[in-house]
Structure prediction request, 226 residues.
Amino acid sequence: MERNIYISWLLDFYGALLTEKQRTVLELHYNEDLSLGEIAEQEGISRQGVYDAAKRAETALCHMEQQLGLLERHIKMKQFFADWLERLQKIEVQPSSTDLLQVLTENIKDYLS
Amino acid sequence: MERNIYISWLLDFYGALLTEKQRTVLELHYNEDLSLGEIAEQEGISRQGVYDAAKRAETALCHMEQQLGLLERHIKMKQFFADWLERLQKIEVQPSSTDLLQVLTENIKDYLS
Prediction:
């Protein structure tokens, strides 16, 4: 997984445990695609301050994932259900069950989206 | 959900972020069913020390759940798949798909267990 996307996912899982400043910096950088210089200007802090907050926040996020592994678990589960859906779609049902299969398939697709 | 079970679940999700002492105390109390007095004796710390560590640890776990809500998300997801399994079992398949349905059903049951 690309690093930017990885950090963005970690932020989604564990961001609430960061300080507000750390979370803001990472959200602006990874989700809003602002440069560190742009964040410094917008937030009224030095570029070095932004850099330090981002580094500390990334280290904290990676530590939490290393300890808890919830993102990894989430990714494995999505893969499990994606494989599962693929096989479900191969099932041939009796005409009376067509609608039910359709609903179940849509539910899994919603879940995976 | 009963409080003991709830704390035990939180411990399962977030325990790695506690200090070793906090985690040990809660594991012995909630998973091994030892009293605070028994833990104090076993670990060679005062009963008050055990009590304080347990209180701090429980507060930390509840705070993490309040911030991240991963246990709640997990419970909802299990419920979603339990409902889903119930409906899957009502599907009537063509004879050629009997084995496939069986495998898919077993997979979901394994996941839920």
Residues 17 and 23 of chain A are 9 Å apart (CA to CA).
